[in-house]
Design goal:
This protein has one domain (2-113). It has 5 helices and 5 strands; from the N terminus they run E-H-E-H-E-H-E-H-H-E. The protein has helices spanning 13-16, 37-47, 57-65, 81-90, 92-100; strands at residues 2-5, 25-26, 49-53, 71-74, 106-109. The protein is globular, with a radius of gyration of 13 Å. The mean pLDDT is 93.
């Protein structure tokens, strides 16, 4: 259950969330910084990652192409890294349930919805 954090998110997130989501990486860790969404998508699919992003691009790609990979779409505006860690940590059970569900492609996390 590995997460791949998109370039628009802090590269420190995998380390900060390592206890809850081991083996997670940031695109920078994979040498994918600055690469297209298509390349990141293909890498995530091939390596068994779930992509975590704040952008709608991967959501739209999922609608067009299905999954894998699965997408966790963070519907949170400008925020601190601590806010992101909090949102992802507090959603851990929901993320694990989503990742194990063979019928769901996208999980939308919105802090105001909870």
């Amino acid at each position: 259950m590995k997460l791949l954090f998109d370039e628009n998110l802090s590269p420190k997130l995998p380390r900060l969330l390592d206890q809850q989501f081991p083996d997670s990486l940031h695109v920078r860790d994979c040498g994918l910084k600055g690469f297209s969404d298509e390349v990141i998508w293909d890498y995530a699919r091939a390596e068994g990652f779930t992509i975590v992003s704040k952008d709608a691009d991967f959501y739209q790609r999922s609608v067009l192409y299905g999954y894998p990979p699965k997408i966790v779409w963070l519907r949170i505006g400008n925020c601190t890294r601590a806010d992101l860690v909090n949102l992802i940590s507090s959603s851990r059970a929901e993320i694990f349930r989503f990742m194990a569900d063979p019928f769901e492609a996208v999980l939308i996390l919105n802090p105001s919805a909870g």
